[in-house]
Specification:
By secondary structure, the protein is α+β, with helices and mostly antiparallel strands. Helices cover about 20% and strands about 40% of the residues. Strands 2-3-4-1-5-8-7-6 form an 8-stranded mixed beta sheet, covered by helices on one side. Strands 10-11-12-9-13-16-15-14 form an 8-stranded mixed beta sheet. The protein starts with a strand and ends in a 13-residue tail after the last strand.
């Protein structure tokens, strides 16, 4: 069995009391509909696109403000988890076909059983959720780059557009890639979602009409907060390829 990742999910984690508003916003942004809720507290939902396979899910969390995390779908969960352990990850919860882990920097991610997903959702009104960005302290950045590059050997590991960025780019067809960002301060690891946008300003305006707000306007990206207060970024990348305009 291979430990190759066969599908990827971006998970949006938000406070449970704000779950309904979170889902209303993100279904509108992604052009999806909600699955039936799951979990003891009905805290898990999947954003279902028409004619393709889901790659975004939402979780209501009881502690903290939430953030984001990755689910990596594989054929052999125990083998994948063992490889993650060898590289420095540790298991938080083991449910057999779903294992919650922490990376060496402490970022949560999950290994799950692949269910045959293969059809990537389309670009929606010029944008696409396609990236989980890991925000890392300077002291843990290099080790985290090494961890994700080692865990995903068939993904392309390459420097980003700025010295503080590193991209872990999946093989064609997988819907979510990884960006590692080195912060200027020492603080616990966290994560947020990035959208690739053909027109950042047009996307920002559309999101603001849905209740989001801009908190930082940069040249190539805009930092937003959704109606639940969760951060995410609009980035000036090709929504089809995920690359910068002059890079794939």
């Amino acid at each position: 069995m291979s430990r190759s990742v066969l599908w990827t999910y971006a998970f949006i984690d938000r406070p449970l009391p704000l779950l309904d508003g979170t889902c209303e916003f993100w279904t509108a942004v992604t052009g999806t509909r909600l699955s039936a809720p799951r979990g003891e507290r009905q805290e898990f939902v999947t954003l279902l696109p028409d004619g393709s396979d889901a790659c975004v899910k939402v979780q209501g969390v009881l502690d903290g403000e939430g953030g984001a995390h990755l689910d990596l779908a594989v054929d052999d969960v125990p083998e994948f988890v063992a490889s993650a352990h060898r590289l420095g990850a540790r298991t938080v919860t083991d449910l057999g076909t779903l294992v919650v882990l922490r990376s060496p920097a402490g970022q949560l991610f999950c290994a799950v059983r692949w269910q045959g997903e293969s059809r990537r959702p389309p670009v929606v009104r010029g944008s696409r959720v396609d990236q989980v960005c890991l925000d890392l302290a300077p002291s843990s950045y290099d080790a985290e780059v090494a961890f994700w590059s080692g865990l995903l050997p068939d993904w392309e590991s390459l420097p980003g557009s700025l010295p503080e960025f590193h991209v872990i780019k999946p093989p064609p067809g997988l819907p979510v890639r990884i960006l590692l960002q080195r912060l200027d301060e020492e603080r616990p690891a966290s994560a947020h979602l990035d959208l690739a946008c053909a027109d950042i300003e047009a996307t920002r305006a559309a999101h603001e009409r849905l209740g989001a707000r801009a908190v930082f306007l940069g040249r190539h990206w805009t930092v937003m907060r959704d109606p639940a207060g969760g951060p995410y970024c609009l980035t000036g990348r090709d929504p089809e390829t995920g690359g910068l305009p002059d890079r794939s």
